[in-house]
Amino acid sequence: MDTMRINMESGQPTHLECSAQINLGSFYTPLWLVQIAFRMLIWHVNPKDYLLLDSACGYGSFLTLPGFQAYIGMDQDLQALQRAAELCQQPNLSLLHKNALHSVSRVHFNIPNSSKLIIMGNPPYNDRTSRVRAHLKDKSPLEVDTSLKARDIGISFLRSFALLEPDYICVLHPLSYLIKRANLQALKNFALHYRLLDALVVSSQIFCPKSLSYFPIIVALYKRDAQGMDYSYIARFCFKTLENKCFTLEQWDFISTYVDKYPNQQRVDSKVALFYTLRDINALARSKTFLDRQSPHAIYVPAEKYSLYCYIDVFKTQIPHIPYYLRNCDIFLDFAQFQNLEEQFIHASQSKQISPQIARYFRDLLGVHYL
Ligand SMILES: C[S@@+](CC[C@H](N)C(=O)[O-])C[C@H]1O[C@@H](n2cnc3c(N)ncnc32)[C@H](O)[C@@H]1O
Questions:
Q1: Which of 75, 115, 234, 361 is the most buried (most CB within 10 A)?
Q2: Which domain holds residue 292?
Q3: Is the beta carbon of 58 within 6 A of some atom in ligand 1?
């Protein structure tokens, strides 16, 4: 039991090899973070009338939370469930060895239709199409209900929660599910029927201290709500971070308003340069900028947009000054200030020399977020 307690605190399972940990998305939640989620929940709701479900419970850290009427834990990993059974001493606890993305329904998961339900946990996320650590990813994943199929298993989990119609959902997941329009759209029934009530952004470093780049994870509380949430709701939402910072998406202007982010070779014929496909800030940190050769990933840069692509090239040099919680955002800018410094950005990109004025521009752009 002692060894297990130590491993719960470090957040890592002991019974899995590295590749199995990545395939199952088994990055367990340290107890202090489980407590943060619990405090967020009980600020808004009294758990005593509710059944708690964690459908990807691992060693069961969320099932140890006090005060719920009954508890259901589920995992496809039998060894993890056996440890959860040793660790969780709740009187009304049932543990089910199931694939939480298959035949999703209250009946199949032993949840009475009459029960008021809260889902808590840290569902796995694993973008199967991403190239990061692709060699370790399982090419033949578990069966997933058709309506839940998505490129990221975490998005499938959020959709599965909505099917069970809980009153509240309090879970950890990548912030990118909300702040990237395509992801928010991919949440489908979840975004249509749930609304973000409260949130805290923390770093993925908590789960993967050895990773080369960190990204934001949100501890998010959602309430069932007929209005759901759309991108403008998320853009206005004030995201607090563990470091006591706060940001909204609408406070920035993004480069996607001004330039093409994806190959545009069908539409643009006269070009002065080639630029690599743009995604978010973390992707820019890993990718090339200007290309010296034609490629299917190339964006054609027309003369009138050249200075903006120089801006992106210079922005890349400033990424070390940007905190993890903004790293899944698009490249942002202050367009009026950029116009004042346009020639300097071209020069900085070509000479690889950052002038004091450009350094100052980035300090002002990031304000309290500048590292
Ligand atoms: C990030 S861990 C979270 C564990 C625990 N809730 C915690 O926060 O410490 C994700 C868990 O999801 C489980 N899992 C992955 N795919 C699953 C599936 N399709 N059905 C059920 N459990 C699954 C993994 O075995 C792993 O235990």
A1: 75
A2: 253-369
A3: yes
